[in-house]
Cytochrome P450 71A1
Amino acid sequence: MAPLFSVLFRYLHNLSSLSIIHYLLILTLTILLFIYTQTRSSNPNQGLPPSPPSLPLLGHLHHLGSLPHRSLQKLSTLNGPIMYLRLGSVPTVVISSAAVAENAVRFHDTALASRPRSAVSDILFYGSSDVHYAIFHY
């Protein structure tokens, strides 16, 4: 093992400093790519409905064409009546079946009716219970 290191040291010693920087840059990029692929291998969407492939910043916006209702119908035939879409940075669950929507509203009505609380809405809209908050954030 020692002769290998001595040969490697002599080879690196003979190279110019610019080429050593290139080799270090390639090594660093290779390590970062390996780390990225290892962290992406675990499924981040565990517990979420199925979704089509997405782009990093756009999410699933590239799947919506000039007629979004037709695009969503095609996506629902491929992914089922419940699907997870990320529209930009907004996570969205799309339900495209009347029976599934009725089931969701019937059994999960409190989770669907809840709205995020914030300090601004607590101050301006009397603890998020004002009529304005109910109308415009429904």
Residues 17-40 form the longest helix (24 residues).
